[in-house]
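Why do we bother with a discrete structure alphabet at all? Because it lets us treat a fold like text: something you can write down, compare, and reason about line by line. To make this less abstract, here is a complete entry for GIY-YIG domain-containing protein. Read it the way you would read a sentence in a foreign language you are learning: slowly, and without expecting to understand everything at once.
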Amino acid sequence: MPQAKKPRWVVYILRCADGTLYTGITTDLARRLGQHNAGTASKYTRARRPVAVAYRTTVKTHGDALRRELAIKKLTRTAKDALIAKQAKRRKRA
């Protein structure tokens, strides 16, 4: 019997309509983004819709995702903006 494929975890930063940032984790970013924009995902983003993905990274385990999420949440706003800009620059080159 084939083993079920383990989910890949995504750590993401959303840019809210008011310009604030929200960080979270999920195994299905498209579904989670829909929940945020429907107002059913978090109290914070419910009042700040619409939201858009500003940054995403994939990690192997739930523990890795939780650690990365916490590390991002500890960053200053300037550092988060730099992280987002760095990824956007990399994606443009690809």
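What the structure line is telling us, in plain words: The chain has a mean pLDDT of 95. The two ends are 38 Å apart (CA to CA).
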